[in-house]
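**Archive record**
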Amino acid sequence: MLPPTTLARLRELRDTILDLLDQGDAPALHAAVEQAWALAHPAVEPEATALAHWCHGLALLYREPRAALEHYEAALAFFSAHERPPEEGRLQIGYAGLLGQLGRLAEARSALERAACCLADAPAEQRFLPALAINRSDVEGRLGNYEAMLLAAREAERLALQHQQPAAQTQALVNQAFAALFLGQFAAAEDALQQAMTVADAPDLRAWVAVNQARLATYRGQLFAALRLLALARQAFAAAAIEQDQATVALEEAGLYARLQLPHEARRAALSAVEGFVHAGLSQEALEALLMAARLALTLDQPALARQDLARAAQYLAQAPPVLQALLLGYQAHPRLHPTRAARRSALAQVSKAKAELEAAGLLTEQLELALLVADLSTGVRLAAQEYRHVAALARANDLIDLEQRALVGLARRLPPAEAWQPLQRAAELASLMRQMMPVEELKASYLTGVAPLYADLINAYLQAAKPEAALAALFEAKGGIWAELAAPSLEAERTPLLHDAHWLRTKAEWDYWQEQLHVASTPELRTQMQQRIHTLEAQLNGLARQHVRQRSTHVLPNLAVLQQALPATSCALEYLVAGEQLVVFLIEATGPPRYVILGDLAQLTTLLNRLTLQRASLAYCASAEQQQRLAQGQLDPSERLLQQLHQLLIAPLLPLLPPSLTQLIIAPDGPLYSVPWAALRDLNELTYLDQQYELILVPSVVVLALPQPDADNGPPLLLGWEGQPPLPHVASELAAIQHVQPEAHCCNPAQLRDLTWPRPPQLLHLALHGQISAQAPLLSQLALADGPLLLADVLNLQLNGTQVVTLSACDTGKVPERGGVALALAGAFLCAGAHATIASLWPVHDAATSTFMANFYQSLGAGQSIPLALRHARAAVRSTGRLHHYYWAAFQPLLRHITPINSARRIGRPRASQRRW
């Protein structure tokens, strides 16, 4: 006879394993299972063996559902044969969950019915009824019965309240949110999650609710809010030491960062997820995260890192489902990993086999991904072109816009220059279509990054095909499309126009859910069921996407004639382009045809900018003011020569083409040209700086000059400052000097985040504080306020419509990241938020010189000067103090989205008539 203490100890272990499951502690789970079998084997008693099977099945519940199912069946055989309804009922609940995971839904439903019968006459076991109702909700959801899912989740909530189980109530509310989402009831889903957050009584539960709120925010297009929610969830799981949940959240973060064209940050998150999954013993999830990391490494053109990721992933190949096995084999054959011709032949055979497996599995998107690799690896031009055309046709037939675009770009690279423009033109049309479908936040954060190489190829192709007018139109679309989209009247009113559609929302949420389940499906039957459901949903999504594109109101990009009408008569616009390894500039005047000049090699520009950066860095880190002054004096002549060389590269070749009456030079930089201190470029012959010759106006694209200007009822000017650490001693005097000429301004020092909320956007916004740039994750660049950082991601969502000037008196606020468009510089982010103009710095600025600069700049604005002339006056004022090195006076330059501040700057900072002193 088995001692009662052994059975009691096995039951304790069972309950302990339940707690360990919540914590995701794989080593402790393994130890508990070993202990259970150690107790059961010497006993040689059926009940002890059944309890050990129960323990083992519980431990495998989330990691190995098939093995867990076998242990549950063994345990059930004993308890049902010996008519032990309470314990059989508990087992049937878990058994039903496993059956649901494996797609055996009818059996799962029967198991839940049996569980309900077993527990009906067991008052002591009524506490398990909420779990039963939650599992019933899950099963109904997997069956696509979303009304039944919602009813079961509501019943689960009622039972959880009755039995005072906050955790079960939280899970029931989360299930209600999913059911509501699948039914297209967005507001109900949002309310259920908000209630779940209130009910959750533990940090890990609140973290899981935050994860689901993040998913909802993603569907709604609120990507930055989703990132913040995921970060909070990951921190909560870390505090609770739940590694597998931390890893799951990190993987979701990686997906969002990748969508926002931030591959460095996405890869960091994916590798963080890998470590968590490995430690939790979740090999399949680790494999998925490694595949993502490898793809991102290839995006960053870092094949050595991709090889490392794929080598680690290969360790999990044997345990992976067929889909992941095929994807791993495909990525191992990526052309960047096989530089030699012989290696590519072998890789081609491997990726072709993997593609065939995905085709047999019915995974069209993944199949076409590998088909692109087949085309990339093909050494014959004809065969490669044929494969690209095949992928493009299939993608087009199935409305897979991104894949069609990539296939067309690949095709263009295999065609002669005279023919390449045709597929590239179609690819550019698709880029415009995708831009119209993007949520506003994704548009602001990623559009310029994602399409820049495509448009560079297209413009090059047009120029080689002797189509300069088409090249200029493509350039306007490439650099001006986002600003035209942001200027659309409906955009601010409809922050997420696509994602407010209830039918689209429901369909997209359901498609995402089944696509995720398909990747981990463990049986051919289950995959077939899911593929059928996904195919139906895809057809619905494609139709809804097309309908949305027809309905969405967008702003038409102005043509050349409209743009020329917007140009002042005495101006010339220079639209620069980095096209591959070349610099190109188009010259546009108010009359006459545009012209273009190929300026030369990008490498020369990079070299000059790097040398200037090194000079300024040595000044910024001097030990004392005296040492800095001596060094600046010694570097002055070498610095001037570098600025002359930049003038020779970027401006001098254009001088014969500029009209003699020119007074305004409108410059639209591109890529590294945003780092050029344009005002300081030195004419070799005239020995004057560029801003002494012309009024310099910098714009993200010449297109912005012809876009409509929003009317806004603005509030008074707002001055925000904080000395921060290390202290900036001149912040207070800088703000006081500005307030002297801006008597209506409201000043906050030290400023806090709440000071950036207002009933009406300020007419003028000045921020004097520390800036910090995040090179690899630009959305995390920040301005330091007294109670925390203002992230660039937050800036993009500020309401600044009608604000005429935002001045960022801080370090590096005009610096454009290496990967990412101007919207991912702090200056560009404020433009995206609605400001007409920003004044921002290109490098870490000198505190005292900045104070002098700003006092003179605002004094000139208050006197009625335009922004370019006020900046010219401020630069000259700094030089008059003896600070002649461009480090002191050339850091701040303007960036305009609307030309209004230039023409009506007299209104900025002028006191009202009733306040003037005569």
Notes: The mean pLDDT is 87. DSSP finds 38 helices and 14 strands in the chain. Residues 202-256+263-320 form a domain with the Serine Threonine Protein Phosphatase 5, Tetratricopeptide repeat fold (CATH 1.25.40.10).
